[in-house]
């Protein structure tokens, strides 16, 4: 019994150690996506990346459309250090960014150093 618990603990520990680093631009982009899609509770991120040089985040996700069908989409969010999210495009169509996300709440901090 103790051996089984130890094995489960190791599996859980290894799963936790392989987690992705926090990506602040992706998090803000996901919040904006959830606010503009038809069924926010159905949102599921598939892949995401952010680029500190261009101040953009790309998010691939599945979510239900107004008819209940799951649809795969790609969103791109543009950022400004002072204004927060400045632009959002989902599947090639420009989407209005909710006003409260256009704020200085998004504070990315210093750019990461790759030295």
UniProtKB/TrEMBL annotation:
Species per Swiss-Prot/TrEMBL record: Mesorhizobium sangaii
The name this protein goes by in its record: Lipoprotein
Domain of life, source organism: Bacteria
């Amino acid at each position: 019994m103790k051996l089984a618990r130890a094995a489960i603990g190791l599996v859980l520990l290894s799963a936790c150690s392989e987690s992705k680093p926090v990506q602040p631009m992706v998090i803000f982009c996901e919040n904006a996506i959830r606010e503009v899609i038809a069924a926010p509770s159905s949102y599921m991120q598939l892949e995401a990346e952010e680029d500190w040089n261009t101040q953009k985040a790309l998010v691939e996700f599945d979510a239900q459309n107004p008819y209940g069908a799951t649809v795969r989409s790609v969103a791109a969010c543009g950022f400004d250090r002072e204004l927060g999210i400045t632009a959002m495009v989902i599947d090639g169509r420009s989407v209005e960014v909710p006003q409260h996300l256009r704020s200085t709440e998004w504070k990315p901090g210093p750019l990461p150093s790759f030295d």
